[in-house]
Amino acid sequence: MFALVLIAVVAGAMAQRIAGLGFGLLVSPVLVVLLGPFDGVMIINLCGAASSLLVLSRVWRHVNWRRYAGLAASAVVGVAPGAWLAGNVPEAPLEICIGVLLIIALLASQRLTRSSWRASGPVPMMSLGFSSGLMNAAAGVGGPAITAYAIATRWDQKSFGATLQPYFVTTGLSSLLTKYFFSGGHVPALEGWQWLGVLVAMVLGIVAGDLLSGRVRPAAVRRIVVVIAYTGAVSTITKGVVELAFG
Fold first, then answer.
1. Contact at 8 Å (CB) between 97 and 233?
2. Selection from 12, 89, 83 nearest residue 51 by Cα
3. Residue 117 and residue 143: Cα distance in Å, rounded?
4. pLDDT at 82 over 70
5. In the chain, what is the straight-line distance between the N-terminal and C-terminal CA atoms, in Å?
6. CA 44: distance to chain centroid?
7. Residue among 243, 233, 240, 244 nearest 101 (CA)
8. CA 195 to CA 187: how far, in whole Å?
9. Which residue from 22, 51, 86, 120 lies 20 to 30 Å from 202 (Cα-Cα)?
10. What are the structural domain ranges in the chain?
């Protein structure tokens, strides 16, 4: 079971390096199914922040710090209700909610891709930033809402992918700390060697992403991430429904 976790972390870190996002989308369904929605998402928040911090050192000069500040401030406001939901909703309904939220976010971002509408001003930034923070804390998947913002504003891919890295560091750490507070100091029950294995898997994924970044188109990686995310979301919903039906 833990081998599947490591494989998911390697794939997520690789996607994060090549496309700028994808860690939560790839890893969240796997960890939620294997470790439960609360522990799984806490680990995703921590690993997502660490992986983005490692990637940030390579894309620092392309970050749009003004947009980062607006999005991050809005997202942090959404973290608190998301963390409360994660700590107070029973496991099976929470798994169903995570899967449904993921599918809705993916459908919305794909719908915007085919639309000619262009957003501007603070309202789209604040509303989608808030939604991203809430989903990151509750489900570990803040990427689709921010992707929807990038598509709606026609944000340049290089700047968008770079700006996501400090953004995910901020939302991941704020989600982790808020849930730690709401849960009374709960920490996922992983052994020391398992934490080390997750760290090594992240580094391997980023190194592999570095090697592939000039050879693989980010758009192709995003398409693969979306397909896997849909599959994972359906699996998560199915697990929650089975647990509700059979206890």
1. no
2. 12
3. 20
4. yes
5. 22
6. 7
7. 233
8. 12
9. 86
10. 2-246
Grade residue 119 by pLDDT with cuts at 50, 70 and 90: low
| pLDDT score at 17 | 80
For the chain, the C-alpha Rg in angstroms (whole number) is: 17
- The whole-number pLDDT of residue 117 equals 64
Q: At 69, phi and psi to the nearest 5? A: -60, -45
**Which letter does DSSP use for residue 191 in this model?**
-
Q: What token pair was written down for 169? A: 């560091």
Entry pTM: 0.79
CB distance 7 to 204 below 8 Å: no
Give residue 230's Cα distance to chain centre: 14
Contacts of 67 (CB under 8 A, 6+ apart): 125, 155, 163
CA distances in angstroms from 65 to 9, 51, 71, 77, 217, listed in the order given? 27, 19, 10, 18, 25
pLDDT at position 66: 93
